[in-house]
Design goal:
By secondary structure, the chain is mainly beta. It has a domain of about 110 residues. It has 1 helix and 9 strands. Strands 1, 2, 5, 6, 7, 8 and 9 form a 7-stranded antiparallel beta sheet that branches. The two termini are about 35 Å apart. About 10% of the residues are buried.
């Protein structure tokens, strides 16, 4: 008779602050990222009618949630401006040319989209998992609130990305 293992092999829990996020288009953005979500994943289902009950069967289409990052803004506003400029070129409110200078090859700073990678680390700060997001583009850049009535804090903002899909794999060497 086989016994069922009820104790996990790894008893360490995942920490919320053991990650790195790298956006290929803006590599310096990695340093300022404060938080990031691993987006939801939903499998569409189909309902099949029978004479007695409706059966739900797995579908064949996935939908991915949006990725939202919060980041600290440097005093030159470079981290914020790089996202702003990317979005401005995508939406180009000054002409009918909606792509502006975004005509480059994939993987360059002049392409419409960029790939990004979320590295999830162990409690020992070793790479454990890698989530690669394909063809990302920003669709919402959060506001920046300036105030003379509050204590001096470093300003942060958020950015939300859409993407085609993401894949999660074990990081090399784990």
């Amino acid at each position: 008779m086989t016994t069922i293992r009820t104790t996990p092999v790894n008893k360490s829990f995942l920490s919320n602050n053991k990650f790195d996020f790298v956006l290929d288009r803006i590599p310096n953005f990695t340093f300022v990222v404060q938080s990031v979500n691993l987006p939801s994943l939903a499998l569409q289902s189909t309902t099949v009618n029978t004479p007695f009950v409706q059966l739900s069967i797995p579908g064949n289409q996935l939908s991915f949630g949006q990725m939202t990052l919060s980041f600290i803004i440097d005093e030159d506003m470079q981290s914020w401006y790089e996202i702003y400029n990317w979005m401005f070129q995508l939406g180009n409110p000054k002409s009918f040319n909606k792509r502006g200078t975004l005509t480059g090859e994939s993987g360059t700073n002049t392409h419409v989209t960029s790939d990004g990678t979320l590295f999830i680390k162990t409690n020992s700060n070793n790479m454990n998992w890698k989530a690669t997001f394909y063809e990302m583009y920003p669709n919402d850049l959060g506001d920046i609130t300036f105030s003379t009535t509050e204590t001096q804090d470093f300003l942060t903002s958020t950015v939300t990305f859409n993407y085609t899909y993401y894949e999660i794999t074990r990081a090399v060497g784990t």
